[in-house]
Design goal:
The structure holds 2 protein chains of 2 kinds. Chain A is mostly helical. Chain A has helices at about 15, 20-35, 40-55, 60-70, 70-85, 100-130, 130-140, 150-180, 190-200, 200-225, 240-265; strands spanning about 90-95, 100. Chain B is of the alpha/beta class. The chains are: A mainly alpha, B alpha/beta.
């Protein structure tokens, strides 16, 4: 069985090679800029930046847009809300109590564009960064907060173990399901209460197995000298290089520019 | 230099005794003194619960002695200052390949140990590279561990230990969950590390052929060392080994039987080649005539079909990048009351095939008839098919879920609509068939031993009163004694209930003892489906497709090659001893 976690698209590109931390911060800066942008100039800038990143990433456009599918309803809902309930501006069309104003139309176009770009930008992040790089990136970004009790290393270790074991547990669930089916179990008929009860023969063995695995894994980790975040190194210590700094400066400039343009009303 | 030295090692642990509401102390190790010099390859044997795993965990300081001492490279394991140094010197590989790999990429996993030791990045990279070379897994550097085979996963686990530059590797049943190909991959790797890199090896195993490769065999029983010598001298004590619930290689057992029949043969024989040489050295009668080796012939009788498969093809992941043909044009017939042995290496299609017998998998083309009915023609038929054909998956104990043994066994028949006395009768009968007595009924299945759990799980399928019982590797991962118990009860059921049995196994020895006919799967096709005798006549072909014939068949085969006219379709020790006793000088 082949199960892929997340949507990482494994090719080589300048965007793939960027440090995960750079990409996470860049996306955050991009989102700030996007929400700061007020006028056409701001949006144009945001679009250009995103288009450049998308082109450099070597990921098919189709995959980047596929992220939109999940939230199309939210976009439509937001658009409708803004369209029908904006009172400002000149009325363009009136349907009973619903009034559509020119200001409303402008607002919802902006809203939709903003959301689409936001989703595509985060897709670029997840498509070009493997889940494990993301966890390591998060760990390093959270490190400064360790002093105030944020368990950065533990969070990242838990995430990477989860990533490692999800496919194993899915396979296991599949096996258990087959075995119980062979014993005449039925999972997809009956009332909700019956269905919930029929899941017990699946979930109990799955949990038992997960605990057994956890126990054995803990011992195997200890046997390999694991003792938490004490004196640990990494084979691939993530390092920021020139391109990373350049990217960060670029996105910071973008966010600043978006604010400036907004104050000028562009 | 002594790498490992234990002196009067005792390990006690406490268990809560519910009946008396107090903690009880149990001794897992009871005065173990073992000294292992650097570079030695030691096999540690003992049935489940003999204390061998507990001893292994002491070498790695995962456990520390209650009494006595344990030194690894001169370091006392009880001193916590030494813990990390000890774990680095004596790495440990465990049984389950899945539960010891932590990273999603092979090279990251191998780097885990050195990373924990705080080693510099560039040094880690070179160690990972070398470790991968040592286990011949270079090309899988960037692979995801969950896509590798069991044998490959274990080699990665070994590489993960090697990257810590240990002087010793302790392997706790590393091959128990692997198929024969995976087993030899792992054992070859271990041998190479021992012979070429001088790494001390402590190997715990239930496979006697693996132990026979060691420099020394230590046998444990009830927390004590009961035998400790070179393999040939340990295994030639055949009776003593059987008493200890252990096995010996077939070659050794053959020599032992012949000795009992009055032939003065060297009993310290472990391998096929050694046995052949010894028999030839002893010499055969000059004038052998055919009457010497006349045997009873068991004729195969055609019976009424219970399962019929016609041109069955099954494709996984159809029209995707992962498309794989699992079964191709398989046609076969299984008669009512037959005992079929199903053999084939991993990926040969045997698991997919048995899932077709009760409709868990659907054919892409072709038909499956059970008792004359096409099981995929009508969805409503499925329930009755699943009753007729009971399927026991690998490690069936992993599917136990109820609060008590009784309730778990009742799950199947309850789903079929049985209740009250009828249900009670089914549960009791099937538990009796697998030798689980009434005192276990109200226990939680999770409290039982490995072998008991497995038997309860089999009872859970038996309770549905199937006409055909399909078992996928029912003895996998058990010690020799529990293996015998399980296989014995299956054979008994077959004889007593006249139930049709399809036994999937990697072990030619097991299959040849019980089966009427053997189905050999290879590359998704039914390569051979014939009587045991006819299948074993094709020893060479079996070896070509990676299925080793039993040692006994190989011995007879080699003797034939040397010009001694013997039948080659012999596969049990008793039969071989009988024939050889008639022709040996």
């Amino acid at each position: 069985m082949n199960i892929t976690i997340g949507q990482y698209y494994p090719v080589d590109s300048p965007i793939h090679r960027l440090d995960a931390r750079t990409k996470i911060i860049a996306v955050l800066l991009y989102i700030i800029g996007l929400f700061a942008a007020g006028g056409a100039a701001g949006y144009a800038l945001a679009f250009l930046l995103l288009a450049a990143a998308a082109c450099l990433s070597n990921v098919p456009l189709r995959l980047m847009l596929s992220g939109l599918k999940g939230i199309i309803a939210i976009i439509l809902f937001t658009v409708a809300l803004n369209l029908f309930f904006t009172r400002q501006g000149n009325i363009v069309l009136q349907l009973g109590v619903l009034k559509i104003t020119d200001f409303g139309i402008l607002l919802c176009v902006k809203m939709a564009v903003r959301l689409v770009m936001l989703i595509v930008a985060s897709s670029v992040l997840t498509l070009t960064t493997s889940p494990i790089e993301l966890t390591v990136g998060m760990e390093y970004l959270l490190k400064p907060f360790k002093k105030i009790g944020v368990p950065a290393h533990e969070i990242s270790m838990m995430m990477s173990i989860a990533l490692r074991f999800i496919p194993t547990l899915i396979e296991e669930l599949d096996k258990i399901k087959k075995a119980q089916t062979a014993r005449g179990a039925v999972f997809d008929t009956g009332s909700i209460a019956q269905r919930a009860k029929s899941l017990l023969p699946l979930l109990v063995p799955l949990f038992v197995s997960a605990f057994r695995r956890a126990d054995e894994l803990a011992m195997a980790m200890e046997a390999r000298c694991y003792r938490g975040d004490v004196n640990r190194t990494r084979m691939n210590e993530p390092k920021l290089c020139g391109v990373d700094y350049f990217t960060l400066v670029l996105f910071a400039l973008f966010a600043a520019a978006a604010f400036l343009l907004r104050t000028r009303g562009l | 230099m002594d790498f490992i030295k234990s002196d009067s090692l005792v390990y006690e642990y406490s268990v809560y005794n519910e009946a008396e509401a107090k903690n009880e102390k149990l001794r897992a190790l009871d005065g173990v003194s073992i000294t292992i010099p650097e570079g030695q390859f030691v096999a540690l044997l003992g049935h489940n619960g003999s204390g061998k795993s507990t001893f292994a965990k002491h070498i790695n300081a995962l456990l520390t002695p209650s009494e006595g001492v344990m030194y690894v490279r001169g370091m006392d394991t009880s001193d916590t200052k030494n813990t990390w140094q000890i774990r680095q010197s004596a790495g440990m590989v465990f049984q389950n390949p899945d539960n010891q790999l932590i990273a999603t990429v092979v090279e990251e996993d191998i780097a885990f140990g050195p990373e924990n030791l705080g080693i510099e990045s560039s040094e880690i990279r070179s160690r990972v590279k070398n470790a991968l070379l040592s286990v011949s897994m270079e090309e899988f550097r960037k692979s995801a561990p969950n896509l590798l085979s069991g044998g490959q996963k274990q080699r990665i686990a070994i590489a993960g230990i090697l990257a810590m530059k240990p002087g010793c590797i302790v392997l706790d049943e590393p091959t128990a969950m692997l198929d024969p190909a995976g087993r030899s991959e792992v054992i070859e790797t271990v041998m190479r590390l021992n012979r070429q890199e001088g790494i001390t090896i402590v190997l715990i195993t239930h496979y006697m052929e693996e132990a026979a490769l060691a420099d020394r065999v230590v046998v444990m029983e009830k927390g004590r060392v009961v035998m400790d010598d070179v393999p040939s001298r340990v295994f030639c004590e055949v009776e003593r080994m059987k008493e200890l619930r252990l096995d010996v290689p077939q070659a050794t057992e053959l020599m032992h039987s012949l000795n009992k029949k009055g032939f003065a043969l060297n009993r310290q024989v472990l391998t096929v080649d050694e046995a052949v040489d010894e028999l030839i050295r002893h010499g055969f009668k000059g004038d052998m005539n055919d009457t010497d080796i006349v045997r009873e012939e068991k004729e195969y009788q055609k019976r009424e079909n219970i399962i019929e498969v016609k041109e069955l093809t099954h494709i996984y992941g159809r029209q995707s990048a992962f498309e794989r043909v699992a079964l191709k044009d398989v046609s076969l017939e299984i008669g009512r009351g037959e005992f079929i042995g199903l053999i084939g290496h991993t990926g040969s299609g045997k698991s997919t095939l048995i899932q077709h017998f009760n409709g868990l998998a659907k054919p892409d083309s072709g038909v499956v008839l059970v008792d004359g009915t096409n099981i995929n023609a009508d969805k409503r038929e499925l329930a009755s098919v699943r009753q007729k054909v009971g399927l026991v998956f690998q490690y069936p104990e992993h599917q136990l879920f109820e609060a008590t043994v009784y309730k778990d066994v009742a799950f199947g028949p309850h789903n079929q609509g049985y209740s009250g006395e009828e249900l009670d009768k089914l549960v009791r009968e099937s538990l009796a068939l697998v030798d689980i007595d009434e005192s276990f009924y109200e226990k939680s299945p999770f409290e039982l031993s490995g072998g008991q759990k497995r038997r309860v799980a089999i009872a859970g399928v038996l309770a549905m009163k199937p006409q055909v019982l399909v078992l996928d590797e029912p003895a996998a991962g058990l010690d020799p004694y529990s293996r015998e118990e399980i296989l014995g009860s299956i054979s008994l059921m077959h004889k007593k209930l006249g139930i049709t049995v399809v036994l999937v196994s990697h072990s030619m020895e097991d299959i040849s003892r019980f089966a009427d006919r053997i189905l050999v799967m290879n590359g998704g096709r039914a390569e051979m489906f014939d009587t045991v005798k006819n299948v074993f006549l094709r020893t060479k072909r079996l070896e070509e497709i990676g299925l080793a014939a039993p040692q006994i068949s190989l011995i007879m085969d080699r003797l034939c090659d040397k010009g001694i006219a013997l039948p080659t379709d012999v596969y049990t020790v008793d039969e071989a001893a009988d024939i050889l006793s008639r022709v040996l000088r």
